[in-house]
Every structure is written in structure tokens, then in C-alpha cells.
Design a protein that fits this description.
Two copies of one chain form a homodimer. By secondary structure, chain A is of the alpha/beta class. In chain A, 33% of the residues lie in helices and 34% in strands. The first copy, chain A, contains six helices and eleven strands.
């Protein structure tokens, strides 16, 4: 997604070969126009699927889940993070290890809001280790719902997240795929969405 | 806001005279159409103010900040509840005591995203003790920005939040004001927005 890549080049702050800060427009201060475009792009990519619900995890996935849910005209659900494992019978839970924070937390979704009739699109801001997304995938499975795919805003292709998700048979689409980066330098690989738009352009010709 | 009150009556879950669960449509599963209407309503209430930024706190304020920011066509910022690893530059902070969780946490906003030129509308899902909102008010003051008002989706009028905010000279508007509740029973007082719409209707006659 060229708009997103341009924004990352212009306003992203590359702190190291692993850490990219995008909190001026994606996940602290939020450019709502860009978020809406991201939602529309996920809709273009997954519109052939019958999506009944968008699922994300608090907090930084919420703005993209909202934009995507708006584009599909369905509700979204955000999983909650809990440190203490209090026994709650009415929730689906998965354990997620955060490598950044070096701690394990529980991801919870109320059983009332996800069930066997749901066709779920999972959306999040980053795909890196894939830990949080795998927790969400496990929750969708636990709910007996159909997982239609995972949409990520930014993917760090040099980390193992995609591989781990694809091993579980999950269809993963990212809008900006970073192959390598270092302070002052960033390289993208063409995203699935660009291939898709190219195909659309081919049809139009 | 009648649409919201009707939804609370139909789908809200009153657990006690103090606890109202609205997680089927507001803050776990989210009805995006309702969230957008809430954003438009805050815009109607505050449109005479020159708003440059909407401010909220993660996680459950994000969907309403996004809808409100969309209506004003400005960015929004969500305060983080503790200092994140990648939030390296200087931050404004305020200590907030959560009565529900009986713990004190830090609310942080990067200094890069709030400054003296900003005219800020604070938005959140609930106004009860006002603790989190007062933290945000303090951060706006610390930034030297102009606070134009606070918009809350649901206010529990029987708690002290509004009084504490008004003591600080803050203009508070809530869309559903609960005067009293108990399992199976809920009472609303007319909201500021309804008075405003009534005024609009009077003009139209």
C-alpha cells in the first residue's frame, strides 16, 4: 500500500534494525484518514470472504479493526489483555508471551461475542513474532468460528510471525512489508495488496 | 442521546447499583454504526469550538476518539497506561488511581503530539469517579494546550466525576446520564446533547 509506505518513509522513526516507531500516525497519535484507507484496503483484499466479525487485540489494533469493520459493515471485537489469571468460565483465553516486555499475559474474549457461526477477519497493527496474533487465532479456533484471514498493517518480514501463522494454515496479508531496515534506511517488499491492485489494473486495461 | 439510551436499555447488563456492563456494543464488542453516531454527536455539541486534536486513554476510549476525530477531521491521540519501550522521547505523565482495580498507574502522552497550539477535546467511554479523565486534563494543562471540553459516552451521575472536573473549570458533556440503576432498572436524566437538539428543533419551528 503505497500511501502507507510513503507515510512510513516520511514519518516513521527507525530506532534500530528491529524497532520502527510509527506513533506519530498509527499507534499513539492516529491519522484517521490513513486508518480509514487501511480499513478499505483490508476490505478490498478480503471482500470475497463472508466476514461477520473483525477481531483485534487492545489497544493499538482497535483503530484498524474499527476502520475495517466499518468497511465490512460488521461489528468488531477487541480481545483484552490480562496479567492476572483470574478464572472466568465465560471467556476464551490464550497465553501470549511478549518478547518486548518479557512477560506472559492472557488474551481474553467473551464467549458471548464469538461463536461457530462467525467468519472472522483478524486485524492488527504489527506482525513481528506473531505471538499476539497466534493467541487470537487460537481463540477463534476455540470458539469454533471460521478464520477467514489475518490482516496486518506493517509486517517485519525478517521475523518469524508469518511463518508461524502459515504453519497453522492461516492466510496472512500485510499492507507494508519491511524486508530490512536500519536507522535512515528502510526496504519494502511488494505487499499482497499491491499484487491484487496490479491484477485489478490488468483487468481494467 | 436517545439511540444510545435505547441501546443501553436493550443490551446493557446492570450487575449492581454501580456496575453497568455495555461490552456487547461499546467496549469489548463494538457496534461501529453506534460509535460513529456518538462521534457525530460530540461534533454537534462541540462544533462551535476550534478543535485541533481529540485525546483519550487506551483502550476503551479509542473507538469513540476515532469516531469523534473523524467528525472533526483532526487526528486523535490515545494516552498510554504505562511507559512503553518504544515511547522514548519526553512524555507528559499523570498518576491515576483506579478504584475498580485498586491500583495506581501512569498515564503518558508523548510531548511531540500535544502542545500550546492545540485545542483539545477529551473523549472517554465512562465518567464515574473521573480519575482517568482528571489525569488527561492534567496532561493537557502540562502541555500548555487549551482544553475545550470533555465528552463522555456514559455518565454515572451518582458518582463524583463531574463535580471534580467542573471544580477544575472543565466543560463536561455526556450522551447518556444515568441518575440511578439497579438490576432490571435504569433511569436517565436528559443529557446536554438532548437540550442542544431541542434548541435546534426550536429554531427549526
Amino acid at each position: 500500500m503505497k500511501l502507507l509506505e510513503d507515510k512510513i518513509r516520511a514519518q516513521g522513526n527507525i530506532l534500530s534494525d528491529k524497532v520502527l516507531k510509527v506513533d506519530s500516525f498509527l499507534n499513539h497519535q492516529v491519522d484517521t484518514s490513513l486508518a480509514l484507507e487501511i480499513g478499505k484496503q483490508f476490505h478490498r483484499i478480503f471482500e470475497h470472504k463472508k466476514i461477520t466479525k473483525v477481531l483485534t487485540i487492545e489497544a493499538s489494533g482497535i483503530q484498524f479493526a474499527m476502520a475495517t469493520a466499518m468497511a465490512f459493515n460488521v461489528p468488531f471485537v477487541y480481545a483484552k489483555k490480562k496479567k492476572a489469571v483470574t478464572l472466568q468460565e465465560s471467556v476464551y483465553t490464550a497465553a501470549v508471551h511478549s518478547f518486548t516486555k518479557q512477560e506472559t499475559y492472557q488474551v481474553c474474549v467473551s464467549q458471548a461475542y464469538l461463536g461457530p457461526d462467525d467468519h472472522v477477519l483478524i486485524v492488527d497493527d504489527f506482525l513481528a513474532t506473531g505471538a499476539a496474533l497466534i493467541g487470537l487465532v487460537d481463540i477463534v479456533k476455540e470458539a469454533g468460528a471460521t478464520l477467514e484471514g489475518v490482516g496486518c498493517v506493517i509486517e517485519k518480514c525478517f521475523q518469524e510471525g508469518r511463518e508461524l501463522l502459515e504453519q497453522k494454515g492461516v492466510s496472512v496479508h500485510s499492507l507494508a512489508k519491511i524486508s530490512a531496515m536500519a536507522p535512515g534506511e528502510i526496504h519494502f517488499v511488494p505487499g499482497d495488496d499491491e499484487a491484487l491492485l496490479q491484477k485489478e489494473n490488468d483487468h481494467a486495461e
